[in-house]
Amino acid sequence: MGRDARLPCHPAWCRSQCPFFRDEDKPFFLDALAVLAPADGVAVHAYVLMTNHVHLLMTAEGDEGLARLMKRLRQRSIDPN
To answer: Which one-letter DSSP state was computed for residue 5?
Structure first.
Protein backbone atom coordinates (compact mmCIF):
# COMPACT_ATOMS: atom_id res chain seq x y z
CA MET A 1 0.00 0.00 0.00
CA GLY A 2 1.34 3.42 -0.92
CA ARG A 3 1.75 6.45 1.28
CA ASP A 4 -1.33 8.64 1.77
CA ALA A 5 -0.82 11.37 -0.84
CA ARG A 6 -2.41 14.01 1.40
CA LEU A 7 0.29 13.64 4.05
CA PRO A 8 3.47 15.72 3.79
CA CYS A 9 6.24 13.75 2.20
CA HIS A 10 9.95 14.41 1.91
CA PRO A 11 11.59 12.10 -0.60
CA ALA A 12 15.34 12.65 -0.75
CA TRP A 13 16.53 12.55 -4.33
CA CYS A 14 19.95 10.91 -4.17
CA ARG A 15 22.19 9.95 -7.03
CA SER A 16 25.58 8.35 -7.07
CA GLN A 17 26.81 11.44 -8.88
CA CYS A 18 26.55 15.06 -7.86
CA PRO A 19 23.21 16.40 -9.17
CA PHE A 20 24.59 19.95 -9.45
CA PHE A 21 27.72 20.12 -11.58
CA ARG A 22 27.64 23.87 -12.22
CA ASP A 23 26.31 26.90 -10.36
CA GLU A 24 23.60 27.25 -13.05
CA ASP A 25 22.20 23.79 -12.24
CA LYS A 26 20.55 24.81 -8.96
CA PRO A 27 18.43 27.66 -10.40
CA PHE A 28 17.55 25.40 -13.34
CA PHE A 29 16.32 22.73 -10.91
CA LEU A 30 14.31 25.26 -8.89
CA ASP A 31 12.76 26.73 -12.04
CA ALA A 32 11.77 23.25 -13.21
CA LEU A 33 10.33 22.47 -9.77
CA ALA A 34 8.31 25.70 -9.79
CA VAL A 35 6.79 24.83 -13.18
CA LEU A 36 6.30 21.07 -12.80
CA ALA A 37 5.04 20.83 -9.21
CA PRO A 38 1.79 22.80 -9.73
CA ALA A 39 1.18 20.95 -13.00
CA ASP A 40 1.34 17.65 -11.09
CA GLY A 41 -0.82 18.89 -8.22
CA VAL A 42 2.09 19.06 -5.77
CA ALA A 43 2.68 21.86 -3.26
CA VAL A 44 6.33 22.43 -2.34
CA HIS A 45 6.64 23.60 1.27
CA ALA A 46 10.42 23.53 1.67
CA TYR A 47 13.57 22.37 -0.06
CA VAL A 48 17.27 21.98 0.66
CA LEU A 49 19.73 21.69 -2.21
CA MET A 50 22.83 19.82 -1.10
CA THR A 51 25.85 19.11 -3.25
CA ASN A 52 24.99 15.44 -3.71
CA HIS A 53 21.22 15.26 -3.08
CA VAL A 54 18.00 17.21 -2.66
CA HIS A 55 15.49 17.24 0.21
CA LEU A 56 11.91 18.23 -0.64
CA LEU A 57 8.96 18.71 1.70
CA MET A 58 5.84 18.40 -0.46
CA THR A 59 2.14 17.61 -0.36
CA ALA A 60 0.40 15.98 -3.31
CA GLU A 61 -3.26 16.35 -4.22
CA GLY A 62 -3.48 12.94 -5.88
CA ASP A 63 -2.01 9.48 -5.52
CA GLU A 64 0.46 9.78 -8.40
CA GLY A 65 1.56 13.41 -8.10
CA LEU A 66 4.83 12.90 -6.22
CA ALA A 67 6.02 10.01 -8.34
CA ARG A 68 5.16 11.83 -11.57
CA LEU A 69 6.88 15.01 -10.39
CA MET A 70 10.09 13.23 -9.37
CA LYS A 71 10.17 11.33 -12.67
CA ARG A 72 9.73 14.54 -14.66
CA LEU A 73 12.40 16.35 -12.63
CA ARG A 74 14.85 13.53 -13.20
CA GLN A 75 14.05 13.43 -16.93
CA ARG A 76 14.49 17.19 -17.20
CA SER A 77 17.84 17.05 -15.40
CA ILE A 78 19.07 14.46 -17.89
CA ASP A 79 17.61 16.13 -20.99
CA PRO A 80 16.91 19.81 -20.28
CA ASN A 81 15.30 20.45 -23.70
So the answer is: T
Q: Please count the structural domains in the chain.
A: 1
Q: Is residue 42 domain-resident?
A: yes
Q: pLDDT grade, residue 1 (50/70/90)?
A: very low
Task: Flag whether 7 is in a domain.
Answer: no
Q: Which amino acid is at 62?
A: G
SS3 state at 78 = helix
Q: Residue 73: which domain range?
A: 12-78
Residues 11-50: tens digit of each pLDDT: 444 444 566 777 788 888 899 999 999 999 999 999 998 8
Give the CA angle between residues 48, 14, 65 to the nearest 5°: 75
User: What does 6-42 look like in DSSP terms, one character per residue?
Assistant: TS-B--EEE-SS-S--STTHHHHHHHHHHHHHHHTTE
